[in-house]
Design a protein that fits this description.
This protein has 495 residues and is α/β, with parallel strands linked by helices. Helix content is 31%, strand content 25%. Helix 1 (5-13) runs parallel beside helix 8 (205-218), helix 2 (29-45) crosses helix 3 and helix 2 (29-45) crosses helix 6.
């Protein structure tokens, strides 16, 4: 087994179909597969062997994709992380994963320079590095045969975002990724006629596995943008007839501020949101404005994306759906015992898509599992129909005056207010209460909020200890490059 063979299959079945759209260019499956084979050949000539690490630290580009699949074809392990890392963070990760080859951008070469003294790094791929992607393709042999690997062999190491501390490299096998992308393709009813838009960073599990791998698995086209830009996204949707729109909650909120939204998104048949649970009010408003449901799934880096999926057949607003094929979800109490339907506890997962652990980190690996069950760190419950609902992150829970407060419950109510564009509820240190509940709010354009009115509104729905002690106006909320809200950054700034 080698997940790069999915690309080869699509090139065999749909050689003239567009595989990648970038910078206005359309690259066919035949051309893309040929380029990746040539790169694999060149990498093998340079000593890359099965099991070697090839690291990726660059923005979205055709070259990123081509070298990534070329590395997989050699049997190497693709190790991916953000190109926005500082020099210190980059050195820490590279020293941990010890890649033989590093693909990066020219602007990162100065940051990489100190790493070159280490014997493990043989080659830096960049236009001003040891060799550029163009030369790798030119020097390679298109007849290169993809190296077969065992199902349990590691295909990729994806470093987590590090929002809770030092990033960890989640080990994902060929079987893990294959199981995940098959589920994505099945539940999203993907086909060779789809065109998927991707502006999220390719190092992240959502863009890399959920979007990119599943698109190539089904022979569809990947419309790749370097980052999110509203005008570029709208242009790409119209010009390249995008049928599948992938985004995060903050982007959906931003789109809802546009006029004639249904007309602007007319080619799209399917919408999906990741990174964080979507506020119910946003889902309802999107359906009203566009006629499209925002489908959600529950997943994480350690699950190679999809754990649950909120259906075509019975879409339940506020839920993240039911378990995907061959995946089991169990709610456990603090002692590791399963709880009854409707009772809250930690979401734990078991299935063929689940990581075996973290690179060079047995302690974190052990802490992440209860037997075969991966501990998500999320609090949720399963209703009698089997639908999973996320209550909050375990680490985001606020303890104020001895009472447990889940910020998401408050945020859901705040999102029903038209004057609120975005919000985040966090706990800040308090000498009397331990933590004080505080709401940080980005107002809708031209609609400043009134803290007294918000407090009165929330008192109608929530117990007094859940009402924020303060409502703080901010221009924006900190997020990582995958669009996930960084509540710890808010706490650090305002504590």
């Amino acid at each position: 087994m080698n997940i790069a063979q999915n690309l080869e299959n699509s090139a065999r079945f749909f050689p003239e179909h567009t595989a990648v759209v970038i910078d206005g260019r359309e690259i066919s499956y035949s051309q893309f597969n040929d380029d990746t084979a040539r790169i694999a050949s060149s990498l093998a000539t340079r000593g890359v062997k099965p099991g070697d690490h090839v690291a990726f630290c660059g923005p979205n580009s055709y070259e990123w994709l081509a070298v990534y699949f070329g590395a997989l074809k050699t049997g190497a392990v693709a190790v991916t992380f953000s190109h926005l890392l500082t020099r210190q963070e980059l050195e820490q990760i590279l020293t941990d994963c010890r890649p033989k080859v590093l693909f990066t951008a020219d602007e990162k070469l100065d940051d990489v320079a100190p790493i070159r003294q280490h014997a493990f790094l043989h080659t830096v791929i960049a236009e001003r590095g040891d060799i550029g992607c163009t030369d790798l393709i030119a020097q390679g042999d298109a007849a290169f045969e993809t190296v077969d690997r065992q199902r349990g062999d590691t295909a990729a190491v994806l470093y987590t975002g590090g929002t809770t501390g030092t990033p960890k490299g989640a080990l994902l096998s060929h079987a893990n990724i294959q199981a995940a992308i098959h589920n994505v393709a099945f539940y999203e009813r993907s086909s060779q006629n789809d065109r998927s838009l991707c502006f999220l960073p390719l190092n992240h599990v959502f863009a890399q596995i959920h979007i990119t791998h599943s698109t190539f698995y089904t022979g569809g086209g990947l419309v790749l943008l370097p980052a999110f830009d509203l005008d570029q996204v709208l242009h790409a949707v119209a010009r390249f007839r995008v049928t599948k729109f992938y985004a995060v909650p903050t982007i959906y909120i931003r789109f809802l501020g546009l006029e004639k939204l249904k007309q602007k998104l007319s080619p799209i048949r399917y919408c999906f949101s990741a990174a964080a649970s979507m506020a119910r009010e946003t889902v309802r408003e999107w359906k009203k404005r566009t006629g499209l449901a925002i489908h959600e799934a529950y997943g994480m880096t350690e699950s190679a994306s999809m754990v649950t999926f909120n259906h075509y057949w019975r879409h339940v607003v506020g839920s993240v759906g039911t378990p995907a094929s061959l995946v089991e979800v169990r709610i456990m109490d603090s002692d590791g015992n399963p709880v009854t339907a409707g009772q809250e506890g930690e979401i734990c997962i078991c299935g063929p898509n689940i990581t075996s652990g973290y690179l060079n980190n047995p302690r974190e690996t052990q802490a992440a599992f209860r037997g075969p069950w991966l501990r998500s760190g999320d609090i949720g419950y399963i209703d009698p129909d089997g639908y999973l609902f996320i209550v909050d992150r375990l680490k985001d829970m606020i303890i104020t005056g001895g009472e447990n407060v889940y910020p998401r419950e408050i945020e859901e109510l705040l999102y029903t207010r038209r004057e609120i564009q975005e919000c985040a509820v966090v706990g800040l240190p308090d000498a009397e209460y331990g933590e004080r509940v505080t709401a940080f709010i980005v107002s809708s354009p031209g609609q400043p909020f009134d803290a007294a009115l918000l407090k009165t509104f929330l008192k109608q729905c929530l117990a007094g200890f859940k009402i924020p002690k303060a409502f703080v106006a901010v221009d924006d909320l900190p997020k990582n490059n995958a669009g996930k809200l960084l509540k710890r950054e808010i706490q650090r700034k305002f504590s």
